[in-house]
Amino acid sequence: MAIKDESGATSPTLQDKINMLVALPLPHEHVSGISDSPDSIGERIKVIAKAAGISDSLLNALRLGRRDNPTKVTMQRLADLYDIDPAYFTDGPLGTEIYRQLQLLQTMAEIKKAYTPQLKIAFRDHFGLSARGADAALQILEQLRDLEAGGGSREP
């Protein structure tokens, strides 16, 4: 559950951040046999832990909030697996910003998967794009997804 900082803004907890990672797709080389259904969470935990080189019991304890003090090595391994900055796991503004970006990407992927027509409407109404522009935006997002899934490295 998110916590409020001194300014009253909410920041995601470590548990929120770990759960976000568990919900995200893994790079293709790690996804064989993983279902996106919620009942496969145990399997996802095992695959993620193995790919990151950490124990599945540690990852599950972090996900459930039973542990909230991962080592620097654990954070680095998870960050490397998802190709994100290890600052994601910190309480600072960079960790919160990375979390929000991942949240947006996850939301867009879910919308794209289930609601492509609604996404086109959002592009048209929110961004003022024509139907042709909305189609082009979807194609760009699909190309970006394919590029990221192909293991392309991100620049800092």
TrEMBL record:
<dbReference type="InterPro" id="IPR010982">
    <property type="entry name" value="Lambda_DNA-bd_dom_sf"/>
</dbReference>
<dbReference type="GO" id="GO:0003677">
    <property type="term" value="F:DNA binding"/>
</dbReference>
<feature type="domain" description="HTH cro/C1-type">
    <location>
        <begin position="49"/>
        <end position="89"/>
    </location>
</feature>
<dbReference type="InterPro" id="IPR001387">
    <property type="entry name" value="Cro/C1-type_HTH"/>
</dbReference>
<protein>
    <recommendedName>
        <fullName>HTH cro/C1-type domain-containing protein</fullName>
    </recommendedName>
</protein>
